[in-house]
Specification:
This protein is an alpha+beta fold. The chain has eight helices and eight strands, in the order H-H-H-H-E-E-H-E-E-H-E-E-H-E-H-E. The protein has three domains: 71 residues, Integrase, N-terminal zinc-binding domain (Arc Repressor Mutant, subunit A, Orthogonal Bundle), CATH 1.10.10.200; 82 residues, YebC, transcriptional regulation domain (Alpha-Beta Plaits); 69 residues, Alpha-Beta Plaits (2-Layer Sandwich), CATH 3.30.70.
Amino acid sequence: MGRKWNNIKDKKAAKDKNTSRIYAKFGREIYVAAKQGEPNPESNQALKIVLERAKTYSVPKSIIDRAIDKAKGGDEENFDELRYEGFGPSGSMLIVDTLTNNVNRTAADVRAAFNKNGGNMGTSGSCSYMFDHTAVFGIEGIEADEVIELLMEKDVDVRDVIEEDGTVIVYAEPDQYHAVQEALKEKDITEFTVAELTMLPQNEVALAEEDIEQFEKLIDALEDLEDVQQVYHNVDLGE
């Protein structure tokens, strides 16, 4: 799964360069999670996961507090969670997760991004069956063997544990997210380079150089959309 890890890492590095846009997206996601349950991460697991992800992107406390306070204040702005699926150059697959207060606008914007950048929309389920919903943790300063032993001691099931470029990566089922995290906390591991629930492709595809450029334009166009929270794909973008 090393190649998949590099794509996760590269995606995060690219996002880190677009801080204002990323902070706005996290603000919306935190607000929705807080509004759907208790505005307390200790009793709202969805909110807790979002806040943990926000931490790995260094989202300022002021943005987090503002979003939670907005939810506490009974704000009536409602968002729908919608998933779109589509194809890029050479049959590459993409999953686009959105949070929107205007479904028609979002659908039109996503479709336009595909159509203008060498892609086309698919139907629901046309791509997602080729991806696995996965919990991923990236940990530095520890050996993979130590992590494996720790998880075994706590009887936590994981899909894989590998070490690459000085980082230990843990892949687990989504429902094991908190079990993995709690086991690591007992080893005083509370800082992660990545702590996410993501969609990992079962197989990755390589594109020709000219298709890679077109594909990256498609990804950028989708991620630039205000309503788009996450874009997942099955392309090996290389080193």
